[in-house]
Amino acid sequence: MRKTTPSATDLAPESAGAGPDALAPDEPASYEAGLAELEKLVQQLEGGQMPLEELLTAYQRGARLLAYCRDKLQAVEQQIKVLEGKELKPWTQE
Prior knowledge:
Elements: H1 8-11, H2 31-47, H3 52-79, E1 81-84, E2 87-90
Antiparallel strand pairs: 1-2
Helix pairs in contact: 2-3
């Protein structure tokens, strides 16, 4: 009998063909959902009533949510630009 090694497509997650807009399993559906979850986690963390293992898990999730929200805000900042002549310039409210 010949042993075969799995190919990259055999090891890929089922959502691999879902395209670039597919959400990661732990990614919030939107900025607002991510922010709401982050606020809830902060309240739980500040309460000080979580077991140590849950505290660590919640802190790690909060760090991922914070990075997600920051990335979304940066993406929006990049989109909010006005064309002035041939040069892109950040939009400022006057």
